[in-house]
Design a protein that fits this description.
- With 166 residues, the protein is an alpha+beta fold.
- The chain contains nine helices and five strands; from the N terminus they run αβββααααββαααα.
Length: 166
Amino acid sequence: MARRVMLSRFIQAKIELDKDKIIRSLWDKEQNKYFFSVVDFIGVVTESKDPFDTMKKIRKRERDLGHFWKEITTVLPYKTTGGVQDLIFADTKGIFRLTQAIPSRNAEIIKRWIARFASVAVSGLTGEGQGADVSSVYSDPQFVELTQKVTEIKNNLDAQVKKEMQ
């Protein structure tokens, strides 16, 4: 009974990057935020054949990540063709923390993107950005392309959730 109630709290969605690259996602109606399958994310970013094993290796290698694993991840029910499965999910903050621990070319692109956003945000908060030209950050083609892709993914997820809520 509790599992069914918990399952009704979420709306399932998917990020489809390619036909073989899917990240299962959940929209939490109570917390108003997304959760993403950690194993799917690791599989996409590392291009690993065995993302579950890669996740275990990352946790073992990154001791800090292992200590904070329960803080950045949560086990949630996800309805699959085989029935409801308990999967490991992380919210956006957890995914960003996990990205820092992944040694992959794809992760490096995401890390640089996060760093640029953080740099602009911090300079704006500290007043360093006042009068400074931050347009060079936003005109970098890689930054713009990734920002557009993230925006497209977010809009797609929002559309899936909105459709399910109707």
